[in-house]
Automatic annotation (TrEMBL), chains A, B:
The chain crosses the membrane at residues 392-409. Belongs to the NADH dehydrogenase family. Keywords: FAD, Flavoprotein, Membrane, NAD, Oxidoreductase, Transit peptide, Transmembrane, Transmembrane helix. This is NADH:ubiquinone reductase (non-electrogenic). It comes from Ramlibacter humi.
Length: 443, 443
């Protein structure tokens, strides 16, 4: 399939080094292909722990590993820092912002997702979401400065607004953020202020549907809600946000009168949408997008008229194929992205070798979510059925699972030390704000 | 001296939580005063290791400790995040940006220094200096992106410019930066790139005077130069920078023709100037400034007509008073700032108690500078005379001295682990760039 006039070996371009892209590249280790891995950042981000950076529990380097270092020993990989803006499927090139075209024989697009404000992009600066390190720094800055400003504020109403934290969205990120915010207020900061009592801070979790952690079984969802309440989070389900401004937000409950919450620190965890690159891929290839902007892929993760292009991870609307059963949609979680990356790479190599490709099958090992110190819920899928547990054992399980999957020995060790120390001291390691002024790097 | 109508105890305001301010506040632990510590950031920065953050060896939280956490158990301290813009010595208030006036009975100003471009402030965005965490992030970003861009650059001349690093100024910071840059190029990055050889990067250290590390004895200065050369740094002394632009700089040697260096990553380590708050203090109190903008203080560190105001640290033009000897100028180093902080606090308490104040005496324990892996110079002042050593033993001494003085047990442990790991693997932990675009937080 490679054009021998331009390259001795098939040229593979992988766009994105999240879980999907990373696994795809790893799975081609030793293969007779020339891989170019392109990403907008220089690091693979361990996104499940990003909320810890946002809540000052971990430093950024603890959860981010330089991509070219990860692949230094995989000789068939060239790492490029750059942003892919277009795909030209006819010419078989991807276009890099400021750096011309990159030709490919095979392409794997793993550009992931970003937050969605459901058409209200003007809310972005008022309620930042959590996808990148910059997002995490911005949220960390807002949380820490809210307490700092409250300490200086003489007006009681304004002081209370600075000490009211609202997390919008009751999915895993929203639950983690709300739980950890309550922990910071009740366990980390008390004793450090002279004019305010940080423990009196309010943390609200606002969710439009009736449940937090909707992807969990009902009993674990209820359990998570109880654990949140015990940590001091005011959980408001069946409550839709209708307006956000610089001083607070307006909430419309499913039943009852709308009301206002005065808050100076609002975090958005309510929705994700596929990377805009999905649209570029669809335009160039004729592939279809689903409502969330994800590219609808064939069973083997390639595109309908373009077997040389695969889409994996959060950017793909993929189905899991188990023989004899109806195909099931694949959830947007990191194990699914990793598995898709491996399948797409295997299929790519099969295609080069003239072998048939395999349909993607998602192996669901279960679901887990953390809530705060000693608080989590776990729902494991075992051959004997579901194994559910919560509270301290679930938190320990979550902790070790995450540290285990963190990339690189050093990170694991440092993260464990940071956590062990945070656990015993109830302190948070990374309470550093590099500048007081609002970040101008946000839109 | 306190006004009983407004406060039961004398109100002490300390501006700045660098080494001077921090030690002053610590020295008043348990005293019958109400201290307010004001700083523009929320952390005490261990500045001697800031170059490690800039060169991706340490994460920011490893060298920054939240101030209010440091003083959580010192009940007479209130910590405020804020920027002091003016001092009104007649009204005895300091003015906070956006937050009104803060009255004091006693004032210690420890606002430190910033980089000086000798009137060429237009050079600041072209050659960032290293004083704050934001500076360190910006320099880290430029160093890492220079190699990334070189890997993408097809034009050989432009590629070479991206792989040419120039450090301006041969003081301790310049020597550390140049040595560590050479280390990154020769030891950390090789093997990770496919199109460039990082080891072929050029690192130049440009210094206007005939020597690097001018404050060191001549033999150690020569030794440092040799160690730098061995690490692969091209040391150019007697060379003044006359122009800096986006593509390089113009150098005028003391003897010979001017020449140009094409470089896309230039670091400024050539000059410091006192904080602009020095001018505000001088205007309000009639105190004099020296050429570097530092406030000229009395022997006891207070101001001529205002015994209730002291200035310490890099903002003070102080002299060391040893009975029977001519007063000597105090160098702008952290041990001097700490000692001044303690003396100013003791004199403040003496004044409240009606006791006489003491003249400041600087105890010089010596001087040390690191150059890179296994490379440093040490000049210890002992009762028996100077003890000088260099190379590996000096580097070990430097390492343990710095880790010892880092604030807080956690930081020390994590820094030691980071370093031990970096030493054995030759890797650098914090190679993370959060955004590709140039930071918009710089002027």
């Amino acid at each position: 399939m490679a054009d021998p006039t331009t390259s001795a070996r098939p040229r593979v371009v992988v766009v994105g080094c999240g879980f999907g892209g990373l696994e795809a590249v790893k799975a081609m280790d030793g293969a007779a292909v020339d891989i170019t891995l392109v990403d907008r950042t220089n690091h693979h981000l361990f996104q499940p722990l990003l909320y810890q950076v946002a809540t000052a529990g971990l430093s950024a380097p603890a959860i981010a590993a330089p991509v070219r270092h990860l692949f230094r020993k995989q000789a068939n990989v060239t790492t490029l820092l750059g942003e892919v803006t277009h795909v030209d499927a006819a010419a078989r090139v991807v276009r890099l912002k400021d750096h011309g075209d990159l030709p490919y024989d095979h392409l794997i697009v793993a550009a992931g997702a970003t937050h969605s404000y459901f058409g209200r992009d003007d809310w972005a600066p008022l309620a930042p979401g959590l996808k990148t390190l910059d997002d995490a720094f911005e949220i960390r800055r807002r949380i820490l400065l809210a307490f700092e400003t409250a300490e200086k504020e003489a007006n009681p109403a304004r002081r209370e607004a600075w000490m009211t934290f609202v997390v919008i969205g009751g999915g895993p990120t929203g639950v983690e953020m709300a739980g950890t915010l309550a922990e910071i207020a009740r366990q980390t900061l008390p004793g450090e202020f002279r004019r305010i009592d940080p423990a009196s801070a309010r943390v609200l979790l606002v969710e439009g549907s009736p449940h937090v952690l909707q992807s969990m079984p009902d009993d674990l969802s209820m359990n998570a809600r109880e654990q949140l309440t015990r940590l001091g989070v005011d959980v408001r389900t069946d409550a839709r946000v209708t307006t956000i401004d610089a001083h607070g937000l307006q909430v419309q409950p499913t039943e009852g009168e709308p009301y206002r919450i005065e808050s100076r620190c609002i975090v958005w965890a309510a929705g994700v949408v596929a990377s805009p690159l999905g649209k570029a891929v669809a335009q160039s290839t004729g592939a279809q997008l689903d409502r969330a902007g994800r590219v609808i892929v064939e069973p083997d993760l390639s595109l309908p008229a373009h077997p040389e292009i695969s889409v994996v991870g959060d950017l793909a609307a993929a189905k899991s194929h188990v023989p004899g059963r109806e195909p099931q949609p694949v959830p947007g979680v990191s194990p699914a992205a990793k598995q898709m990356g491996r399948t797409a790479a295997a299929n790519l190599l099969a295609r080069i070798a003239g072998r048939p490709t395999r349909a993607f099958r998602y192996r669901d090992y279960g679901n887990l979510a953390t809530i705060g110190r000693n608080a989590a819920v776990v729902d494991l899928t075992t051959p004997l059925g579901h194994l559910k547990f919560s509270g301290y054992p679930a938190w320990l399980f979550w902790l070790f699972a995450h540290v285990y999957f963190l990339i690189g020995f050093r990170n694991r060790l440092v993260v464990l030390i940071d956590w062990a120390s945070a656990y015993w001291s109830k302190q948070r390691y990374a309470r550093v704000v590099s500048h007081i002024e609002p970040s101008r790097t946000r839109p």
